[in-house]
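Work Package 3 (structural annotation) set out to generate three-dimensional models for the target panel prioritized at the project kickoff. During this period the team completed the workflow that converts sequence records into discrete structure tokens, so that structures can be stored uniformly alongside our sequence database. As a representative example, we reproduce one entry of 331 residues exactly as it appears in the project archive.
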Amino acid sequence: MKALAYEKAHSLDAFAIELIDAAEPRPRDTDLLVGIRAVGINPGEALIRQLRSAEPGGRVILGWEFAGVVEAVGPEAAGFAVGDRVMGTGDMTRDGAWAERLTVDHRVVARIPDQLSFSDAASLPIGGLTAWEALFRDHDSLAAGVDRVLIVGGAGGVGTLATQLLKSRTSALVVSTASRPESREWCTRMGADVVVDHTGNVPGQLRDAGVDRIDLVLSTSGTIGNVGWIAEVLRPFGHLAVVDLNGPLDLGPLIGKSVSLHTETVFSKIMAGGDIASQGRILAELAADTVAGRLRPIATTVLSGLSVDTMRAAHELAESRRTIGKIVINI
């Protein structure tokens, strides 16, 4: 099969992803074999490309957000049949979805309703699961006493879906941060009650907007540099959920308020153990909510083709940190 792969970690200037002939994936008993129709592109994958090299003689195939069609079902993969349209994530220790086919544990997969396109479906898994697991404690309930939530990076994939989940499933006041006019307008369209500029004086902007406290901060970008003002706006015994840590975080500013810190990585349950099947159930709810109009699809940039040029264009956009919504490639 064809796949996009590379050997050595590299920068965008030295882009080294190539279209190769790769061996067909071999399903495990709990796996589905999925023919890929669309993939979502995430900034995290661009970061991995810069940091992760293959083992000697090997290659890396990235991509853990996909939509496609089931081509084979393992003997322990209950609930799916050949021909089902599905979406899901995957396992970072295995080959990803930048390929014609993927093997994936059926428990991190959900069917795609007929009304949902492959490109819209591929925009949901990573952002939706990350937002859900970072925000909610008892299925879709916020922690006790949380009714004012601030989302840092409200126009990105995680921030966009977090805003919509909060507005559709809770009564919380939602504050989003965005620095450009177009991203501020996007946050408002997605349902944010208040939008502030994270490059300015956030505590002052919140005071001007009449927001006297924040119970929970969901930080999707810039956490290391923003921890000072995050600590200032969080109430004592508040909550900080972080999805972007890639270096040391100074917890000093948070200690005086006894803040609860929650780090979130979508792949923890499948890699480290946990209720893996909960992710398939969440994905099914995200799909149903989208069809019902409670969530809006977030595929704002849709490219075409499993090619080096298309993937490079997607990574240029992802690394610009100026994207709104989700980049998707139709295959």
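The two ends are 13 Å apart (CA to CA).
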